[in-house]
């Protein structure tokens, strides 16, 4: 990528969406064959009925490459036109290189800068903010933000407190530059982080704190460990706070929101937040029943399915909100305006 600030003012606009989910469907009944749980417990506590698992030889980049190709096809864009590929992921192929570099190579985006973002399930919102900043500063024109997760590969499938929650998917959006006078694109962002709760949602081993070679560790140490109750309290609080602060900063009323697409972690968290925000359920799109929590892929996967269901139409004012490991949170309000 090469870009210089040329004084032109412009907006970033989201023009295409796409996703790839693994073929293998794992139902709550399947989970109950592996750990001591029931469909009733999982569904009543989380709203999840089934999730997708990658194959044993698949990683995040495999899903991401296929999703990226779909998005570029929808946009009619050659991969060589991409300036930047941003992959938010909590389950990268490796600690390094960035999964984005592997995907850029696979799809032929040979002119693109490529990097990952580590912001847990908030990664897609952080990625949208980064892509918007690159475009609006004049440094890039075409940015692909693609959440990619193979979370089941880093989940302890014997831990019933976590294994029922997570699933695999890649999903994302293409951002392009539009003239500033168009009333479109991203109206604002509210982003935050509170590392004091960082260890409430953590993969302890494999980094420089507990290097892989200084093991052997319990298998669980290389997997997601979560203090579910603390994360639940955090999530319900920040979802409401983040959306409220953003609406206030934009001097908007909640009634102006046509559609809310929240991070798909837990139906009870979503229900609690929308009732506090005063957003009616018919303006909220959820699909976690079928995919579980796919972390940085969950919001774009839900946006895509909302569009397929006729709930995301051109011009719609859409509120996106996420929260996750870090602990992090973020929200944005955008006008969906495909080309
Ligand atoms: N099946 C059956 N029982 C389970 C279970 C499962 N899959 N998982 C936990 N339990 C048990 C616990 O062992 C505990 O039993 P005990 O009282 O005998 O020790 C009991 O259920 C209650 O556990 P608790 O953790 O208090 O349940 P909860 O009502 O808080 O629900 C979560 C657990 C994980 C569903 C909930 O805390 C949650 O959704 N947290 C947020 C998680 C999240 O969204 N993380 C991702 C953020 S991006």
Textual characterization of the structure:
There is one protein chain. This protein has 339 residues and is an alpha/beta fold. It has 2 domains: 170 residues, Thiolase/Chalcone synthase (Peroxisomal Thiolase, Chain A, domain 1), CATH 3.40.47; 150 residues, Peroxisomal Thiolase, Chain A, domain 1 (3-Layer(aba) Sandwich), CATH 3.40.47.10. It contains 10 helices and 13 strands. It has a 5-stranded mixed beta sheet with strand order 1-7-6-4-5, sandwiched between helices. Strand 4, helix 4 and strand 5 form a beta-alpha-beta unit. The radius of gyration is 19 Å and the shape is globular. The relative contact order is 0.19.
Keywords:
2 domains; 10 helices; 339 residues; Peroxisomal Thiolase, Chain A, domain 1; binds coenzyme A; alpha/beta; five-stranded mixed beta sheet
